[in-house]
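MODEL INPUT / OUTPUT PAIR
PAIR INDEX: 1
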Amino acid sequence: MLLGAPETAESWCRSWRASLPACRVLVLLAATDTAAVPGISAAGTSPESRRVTAAADAELLVLGPTVALPHALPSLPAGVSPALISQVVLQGLGLHPLVIDLGCAVAPAVPHLRLPPPAGAGPARCLSTGSAMDRPRVEALLEQGRRWGLAAARSAPFGGPPLPLVLAECVPGGTTTAQALLTGLGIDSGGIVSGSLHRPAHALKADLVARGLAAAAARTPLPAAARRMPPDPVAVLAALGDPMQALAAGLLLAAAETGQSVLLAGGSQMAAVLALALALLTPELRPRLAALAAIGTTAWVAFESDSDLALLLRRVGRHWGIDHPLAFAASLRFRGALHPALLDYERGYVKEGVGAGGLAILWELAGRSPEHLARACDVACHELLGPPWAPPACPLVAPGSGDPLRSSDG
């Protein structure tokens, strides 16, 4: 447990152990032009490659590591896509994800649900514009998420409680929109939000957020009395956010109404989703959501020295009167004789994404060991990438027979 009241955490875990085989897994793909800012993300080594990241990750998640993917995984500075971890868990637990495309530039070539406009109206604009999405799109996404959540509750078998829900995401540039959304909602998040880079780009994130806030304020200047009021969450989301945040928050609103348990599989991005939902809920429903929704992330995010998820969540909780937001860190670690691309996680690369941390927690709740998961990921990584590269052995050359490394003049 990373954060939360022990009795609440135990109750949450107990309910998930009992209903884990029936849980639903939603993978939300979204895009923001923020990902095109040089140096902002390692979910692909170039802005062009990051346009296909969500599609390729979804294909790996659904098809597995032994199939040629329709869209090649973008090259990374180090490591391997976290979708590999998620795929191993889903296959091992017999869970089947529903992939939802909220308007990515490239659609995944696997079965998925793609929302039509206005909800699925393409990538969000860069948050530095202060006009990331049009308000009608944000409202449509929030309402779509809430409708889906309410419908899921009504379809619970035999009139029982709603089936638990896992929310995962793939949004290149999403930790920066997360920081922007949190800042706009009044949460001091500078310097503690994680990211896909080896070292989070705190200065660049802060600059983009400041520019976005300034542009939004210039577009809709408020009188002094209005500036003293709490910010309008929908307006903040439209100015600075991304489509995943809106749909996921709508699902959380429904969960608070219906009593559905939710695992927010991710780190800083899911902290922003939780903050948004708390801002949209009435004060009476906020404690209920805090008991139903838990953030589940990897150890590489939870214990990263250059970010602080626990502090971020404590600030979110205090802002809306929640004493103990629930958060868990998976025990999965990559150590020993494993593929070097997995060992890169221990060096601070990649860290999280596509629900990897939350799904690794489900693996543990199912009674399986993190060591078993690490070994299964190693097998899958070899299937995906092949054996680690090694330079060819130098040929043995007899003295005086023309050593290719020796120049002709000695």
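PAIR INDEX: 2
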Amino acid sequence: MSVSIKSAREIELMRESCRLLAQVHKALGEMVRPGISTLEIDRAGEKMIRDLGCVPNFKDYNGFPASICVSVNDEVVHGIPSKHRILQEGDIVSLDAGLIYKGYHSDAARTHAVGEIAPEVQKLMDVTKQSFFEGIKFAKAGNHLYDISNAIDDYVTPFGYGIVRELVGHGIGTHLHEDPQIPNFRQKKKGILLEPGMTLAVEPMINMGRADVCWLDDDWTVVTEDGSYSAHYENTILITEGEPEILTLY
């Protein structure tokens, strides 16, 4: 496994890539409302990214047909935007987006409520988001990679939710997906030692029901097997000498 350590110059480029992505996410979040199609969100996101002088890194990635992954309710990740998929009151929608700025990638995801949602669904979203922050308490130089994984699991499991196992976080830099892989569930091994200059995309994907997922016939959209709602929260972070720096927070 070769985990890239970013130079001071590369870190600045990563910071700017992530800062711009945070702007895009803020604007997309403000678009979420009943009656909007998932395709409208995707087109607005792509236009914003290109208007910033950047490239949407999901577009055509391994053949993915859109710039923004828009996943609704029981869709965990990689939902393909469609003019026929209209958001309804009570839905939740996960927006996963990234961009390339001067050769450097950023990646982040947010789950949004569409209008008023049930309290138990809000709780799922809150726990998923908080699990990210519980995990990165351990994202410090000198700790091991799987300290992050174990902390996420320790926080989520008491709620009775399912932690998706088939999809994990990852390193990021000049490529969207780099080493190392970052599971969101407990590991028996320690994992690599974390070092300053590592940039990681930490992204808990949590199901209200069981952990099991399956792929739809489009070979992209991942859904919960039991039809339960799923939430997703992701940021690109930088390992430093002290506390981690969250690069994609607005």
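PAIR 2 NOTE: The chain has a mean pLDDT of 98.
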